[in-house]
F-box domain-containing protein
Amino acid sequence: MNPDSAWIQTTTAFRSQFPMASLNVFAPAVQRLFENPSNLVNIAKYSLPIDLLRIHVTCKAFYTVLQKNSACWNDALQRVGLPPCPVMTASGNWSPAAYTNFIFGGGLCDHCGMWTETLPYHFLLRLRACKSACWEAMMWTPARLVTQITEGSGSPVEIALHRMVGAAFPSHFDDHWGVVYKTTDIVKATERFMRAVARIPEHETTSDLVDDWEKRIHAMPLLMKVQSRLLQPKNIP
Ligand SMILES: [Zn+2]
């Protein structure tokens, strides 16, 4: 799911439960925080990821303070045994806040569309399922996942594209299907490649594209490590 849309959904859900009017009468200490939001950084030092997410969507002032402070998100993740937000030099980075929100902020099930508070079913593929049945169903839905990237009998350029995409984009090994990729990842990558090959003005060149994908390939071990850590339930509060 797009991290921005996930954030908007979380914000909307939180605001419906805790309207600003109720926060304003909580306590003088809270009122002082509204007057000097920079003090939030001290509170963040003792907060869990879910607490930070709640504070983050409280108001624009709190949002701005936390958005600028990457360390507080990474410290909170470390507090629950998770590695910090992975940083790639290639495109496709999360901000620490968006990354934390994707893991802990809930979102829509990618199969049935229901809101769920469960952790992402697959971090690397950025897929969320509300229950195992939805994940199973997703695995059988070609629109969501592609089962293989074939080299076929295409041109050398096409073969090179498929090899590069296969290495640069996250995959998942399924007992039945083997290696699967997220369909939207592959479609977007192919479209990006075709724009570069067509030398469309204001788009990147093929050499820029290959450079970016090579960086993604180098970042993959770190992303795989994060994926394996997220699969350990003991790490999650
Ligand atoms: Zn579902």
Notes: Confidence is low (pLDDT under 50) at residues 233-237. Residues 206-230 form the longest helix (25 residues). DSSP finds twelve helices and five strands in the chain. The chain has two domains: 3-105, 135-235.
